[in-house]
Amino acid sequence: MPVPPRAPQHPVTTTHHGHTRTDEYEWLRAKEDPAVLAHLEAENDYTQARTAHLADLRGRIYDEIKSRTLETDLSVPTRVRGYWYYGRSFEGRQYGASCRVPVADLDDWTPPQPAADAHPDEPALPGEEVMLDLDQLAEGHDFFSVGGSSVSPDDRLLAYAVDVVGDERYTVRVLDLATRELHGDVLTGVLGGVTWGGSADHFYYTTVDEAWRPDKVWRHRLGTAQADDELVFHEPDGRYFVGVGRTRSRRYVMIAASSKTTSEFHVLDAADPHAAPVCFAERTEGIEYSLEHAVVGGQDRFLVLHNATGPEFELGHAPAVPTAPADWRPLLPHDPAVRLEDVDAFADHLVVQQRSNGSSQVRILDLGADPESPVTADRFVEFPGELATVGAGSNPAFEQPTIRVGMTSLARPSAVYDHDLRSGELVLRKQAPVLGGYDADDYEEHRLWATSVDGVQVPISLVVRKGVRTDGAPIPVHLYGYGAYEASIDPYFSVSRLSVLDRGAAFAIAHIRGGGEMGRHWYDDGKLAHKQHTFDDFIASARHLVTSGWTTADRIVAEGASAGGLLIGAVANQAPEAFGGLVAGVPFVDTLTTMLDATLPLTVPEYDEWGDPTGDPEAYERIAGYAPYENVAALPYPPILAETSLNDTRVLYVEAAKWVARLRDRAPEADVLLRTEMAAGHGGVSGRYRAWEERAFTLAWILDRLGLADAPLLSS
Questions:
Q1: Least crowded by CB within 10 Å, which of 161, 254, 298, 550?
Q2: 3-state secondary structure of 57
Q3: Active site residues
Q4: What are φ and ψ of residue 32, in 5° steps?
């Protein structure tokens, strides 16, 4: 049996609010230290040795993912002005290409269909123009990611952003689509992509401060140096993130400054290359709003989705800038049973995304000619199935007579529809192909309800292959959870998940508090002083799967990533007996150390999510009470797989490294593995084949813990 690495201890002692804590492994934070890198490599070697017996299974899972995937494929084209835009993927290539073709008939909004047998080296559609060949751009780089690409208003130029490290600092270049020549403009240190103004001579972009917080918006004029760019907006408050975008109407550029609890928008005239931002409504602590521009009866209206009248948000409207909450007239009044999440404005309609009782919904509001009472009709885009997840897709054109809508579930591959806004007709444009004879009717989906310790009912979504659970006998379960930031982990389809389902396990998502599945109150009841509810809900979900006969505790492997990795680390300490294995991806497990250091990436903006342990003794004690690293003890931990990335700027690799080191020291009998991707960021490796290999590694470990490493595929 290989011997696990033991990190040397170099204790550092600190005192906060009268509490003294000693950290033996803080030295692992020195990313450039050869001793740190050597330790991470030793951990990788140990993990590889301990999982060598799974090499064949990893290969089979990879082959299963690959065989079920249509490798040469085309997305449903989306129309922007005079072009249809789409993405292509190619067999044998890690990355795809972004393409476009001219619109043949400006009155026809039916997307063109490619030839079914389109060859990878031939155009998929007549007149195809390959804007970016991503495989070509990625050549020579271990990591490659496009942060965004945007075509200029005259359709001639393409600005695109590339990250070749994984730290999400992008370099922007500008390509002339006619000549295929790159402009001399090179912008570095950019967060994501750019937003064009009303013409092709300038665009806007965002940069970050030393703590990796997006804090500045700049205006760049083509042909000038980045050093000469104009600072348009700066947000000094460390709690606020800044973003920039343009309205669908193309009339305005919007700058948003938002904390976890408060927001403020600034409006610029897109046609004016010298425009100064005008504040729409000054920030008021606790009031969140988002802004959209509509035109009703020829008049400008600003749609305001806000929580000034209730926690689940109201849709209001206002005629001018600046304004205040008192000026916002309701279109959709606050309803405590409906969480309004987003609104998109079109020439004659509004599209609202909302959720009710744990289900997502798409709602259409018809617009009339009266600016004071604009809504003339209200209806839903209907899909069958309790566990169907629906949402508006890519709909960039203000004048389009259709909206793109997507639908998926745990058993149903994602489908893309066009909904005709005039006739109400719903047309299927594409069902994501799953090769190998996949049939969604071979699987059954269930909505279960667990009772948490305070009596709250927690929804669980579950999928299993029909016939696996005979006579109510328990089966293995792969349980997933997140529970933070109001992020909703709605039911979704996964090709890689079939490798678990088709070996006889069920997959379940626990929709725990801290997420947004049941509305804003669900989020509020799982953060700050209520954070323990997140962990209680997940433990209750695992135990419900046992008491309801689905499984046994030793046959549950739980998984979570990022803030979900914090969840996994917390339940490992609080209820190790409830699980047979735990997977923590890029895990936020050294929570207290991170939240005590305002110089670390993203710490200050996170105070509204977790609390400020530097200034608030109660927050310190609360975080210290659940932080996984703080609470490692001599417990009977189930086997744990921790996975992280060296270049992650959101959750630093050191959190997983320190956690595993302390587990090895304080619980020497624990079976703990650490795997660090040495050329990746928060989202893991880049390139689809490498991503499949990475997922195959994790799933092989999960199947081994579920007792299914040698199980035959039920579909074969």
A1: 298
A2: helix
A3: 562, 648, 682
A4: -90, -5
